Amino acid sequence: MGARVSKLLLRIHPFRLVVPRARGHAPPLLVFLLLALVLLTSCTSESPYDAAVVSRGEELFAANCATCHGVGGEGQPDWHVTKADGTLPAPPLNGDGHTWHHGDGLLYRVVSKGGQEFEDPRFGSFKSAMPAFGDRLSHDEIVAVLTYVKSLWGDKTSRGISIVESQAFASEQDPFPPNGG
Ligand code: HEC
């Protein structure tokens, strides 16, 4: 009985949504107001990151990271399948992987020291293909490249929670190291 009622509601619901719209054109003023609102919010919604740092990071990413992680940080196909040589393909950094689970401090250490630092004999033959950039990039450059990476996450969510906010929370416990530290 209950199931029949909800089936009926399901059928009626979209119908009722469609009918009023189909009856006439939306008044031009309404359309104009909506457009104005969209424009206004896109102008005022501020990125949490400094634009100059993000654009410096974008250049550094293109020059140092894109060969493996992809131009848009999309990673390599089958990135969680270990290759014959025991290494993993480069994972996505654009928010589709799990990069956002880590606070700024850990991300900094991965880029600075490379993945080898994190090799763990408990994972058997795991070998890291993530190079260390500590001798090639300065502190500020590593922060910039990671800020660019975080800017790729936009408003992606995981289980309804903003991944940017979630990662910012993790970073409170584990922030970027101070310059020279
Ligand atoms: C030679 C290929 C290669 C290059 C170049 C490279 N990476 Fe990686 N990166 C990897 C691989 C492979 C992993 C996966 C972890 C592992 O194998 O250690 C990884 C992991 C990472 C992780 C951890 C990701 C996560 O989800 O936990 C971050 C962050 C990262 N790389 C950032 C960078 C940045 C920033 C650059 C450029 C400065 C860069 N990588 C350049 C191959 C590369």
Rg value: 23 Å
What would you say the CATH architecture of the largest domain is?
A: Orthogonal Bundle
Instruction: Give the full name of the CATH homologous superfamily of the largest domain.
Output: Cytochrome c-like domain
- Characterize the main sheet: 2 strands, antiparallel
Strands of the widest sheet, in order across it, are 1-2
Structural class comes to mainly alpha
Quickly name the level 1 CATH class of the largest domain: Mainly Alpha
Bound molecules: heme C
Q: Can you tell me the number of structural domains?
A: 2
The helical percent reads 40-55%
CATH structural fold name of the largest domain: Cytochrome Bc1 Complex, Chain D, domain 2
Q: How large is the count of helical segments?
A: 7
Shape: globular
Number of DSSP-assigned strands: 2
Secondary-structure element pattern, one letter each: HHHHHHEEH
Mean pLDDT: 84
In angstroms, what separates the terminal alpha carbons? Answer: 68 Å
Report the uncertain regions.
8-20
Strand content: under 5%
